[in-house]
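User: Fold this; tokens only.

Assistant: Input:
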Amino acid sequence: MLRLRLLTAAIGLPILIALVCCAPSWLFAAVLLSLTVVGLHEYFTITQSASVLPPVVGVLWGGAVSGTMMVATSELVVAVLLAGFFAVFTLSLRDRQPQRSFAGLSVTLLGVLYVGFLLPHLVWVRARPDGAAWVFFILLVVMIGDSSAYGAGRMWGKRKLIPHISPGKTIEGSIGAVGGHVLTALGSWLWLLPEDRSFLEILCLALGIGTLAQIGDLCESALKRAFNVKDSGWIFPGHGGVLDRVDSVLFPSAFLYYYVTLWR
């Protein structure tokens, strides 16, 4: 399994680097849209037992939201989101058990927001000034933090973080991730991000992104545990599905986009 994971990473990382730094905007957006649709399919396949609506409804609605985010204004994105909400709310009324229909509606809306709305923020981040550097910053904080958490957890992990959701994660591993975030902030400040950003600002951003990444990972673990699923899919051999790979970047992508948009 470890050899398969390393092989997948060895093939995937160069492709990821090329997409972020070299690919035209349309290609980057097309790849993200494809991953979003696959992630939506994984989510609605996992949660199918909790909804009266077929998975295709959620995939189409989430894909429409995601596709609109790639090419249109924020007003149109809201319009597509609301139109889908009205349509899905109406369809859910078919169920003779209102409690079940509302539960299904909630599951569908969560999937559209969680995958279809959050993941495309990476495209918005890349479209900002120095966007490729900011995308790399997110990915570095997440990956180095994850590796630091794994190493610290293996060496010193004793106290469970949230055992009813993810039994393997420890408080010591979470603290180790913070150390990785600090090192990533220092390296990014020196070599990656714009010179007008102070180290304190970059450090705070790294810690915020790292915290959201850990929360995102736990949220996806909770989703899989709720529906008794080990992996969200199989598209990345040895690593699972799209949701297993992007769960840690969903919240950070939205957070960083609105930070660089609203605060400089």
